Every structure is written in structure tokens, then in C-alpha cells.
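Now for one specimen:
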Amino acid sequence: MNDEALILFVKNPTFGKVKTRLAATVGGAMALRIYRALLLRLRQTAEKLPLRRYAYFSHESGSAAEWPADLYLPRIQQGDDIGQRMHHAFEQVLSENRRAVLVGSDIPGLTASLLKSAFQKLNEKDLVLGPAKDGGYYLIGMKTPCKELFENIHWSTGEVLEQTLRKADRMGLSYALLPTLSDVDNEDDWRQHGWDLEA
């Protein structure tokens, strides 16, 4: 049994399939370039920490050049919605590791220190969450799989974090919150991080 594992939830970077709201204003090609830049940032952050890394792809394993087997254990997401897919990932990873933290792939503000803090908080809490400015969360960590946390949640709405915390309270789970960050859904989100769209 290993100690800590990081789960990266990744959409395969396919033209027309990623960052569709962003693509509506910047075009599909630029949206794909931006998503690839976000994935690079995520890998650079993840590789700063000495832990097991699992890359959960949306439909097929990523490029071996970008996701080398000595750094990432490739997996495919399974489930009908994001909640089922996250629960399935936790079930798999926590059968091999004591603590696991799952993050999305579109959070430019995510840092290695935030990830380290998430694992530290799991020493004392059952659950750790990183709130997103849109009302969801960009990070969730736990020590024991908990299917109920992912059921009957209104995904892709501003109620996700609140509903999840209410469930945790009802179940008697202790939790800690990380600083709030913003994800990249549209052009304004991207520009507020100071990255040049034309680069």
C-alpha cells in the first residue's frame, strides 16, 4: 500500500471536444491550444511532488511523450456522469494508496504547495475540497471511497460545492477547504490569468 496518490482528470485534447464555451469566442483551434497549455501547466505542477500519479483520460490513453509511463499510470474514466467517473477513480486508486487527491485539468492557479496542503489536511480530516469560483470544486481528496458524495449532485452548476458539503455534514465527515480558485471556461477566465491568447 502506497501513501499518497494524485489523480489527474484529463479530457483527451481533441479539436472541437475541449473548452467548447471558450471556443465560441476564440475558435476551436485556439481553444485546443489553450487546453494543451493547461495540460502542460498541470503536468509541470504534478511532477514537483514525489507521489504516485494517475492520469485518468476521457476516452483513450494520452501521448506517451507527454504522459510517460514512468511518471503517470494511465487509466480511462468510467461512468455516465462526472460523479460516477470520480467515484470509480477513487475506488481504484484508494485500493492501492492510503490517501488520494483528484484535480481537474483547467485550473491555472493550482500549485504544488496547494496539492501538498491538501494531502496534509487529509492527515486530520476525512475530506478536503478546493472550491472553485463558479460554485463547484477544482480538487477533492479523501482516504476512503464514498459513493454518496457523488450521487444526486447538480453537476456543472453553482450548487456543486454546497450540495457536496451538505452531504458531508449529513454523513458526519470532517472536511477542510483550500483557497478558492477559478477554472477556465471562457475567454475572460483565460485572460484574467494574464496569459496571452495570441502567443
The first strand starts at residue 2 and ends at 10. The mean pLDDT is 88. Strands lie at 2-10, 52-57, 73-76, 97-103, 127-131, 137-142, 175-177.
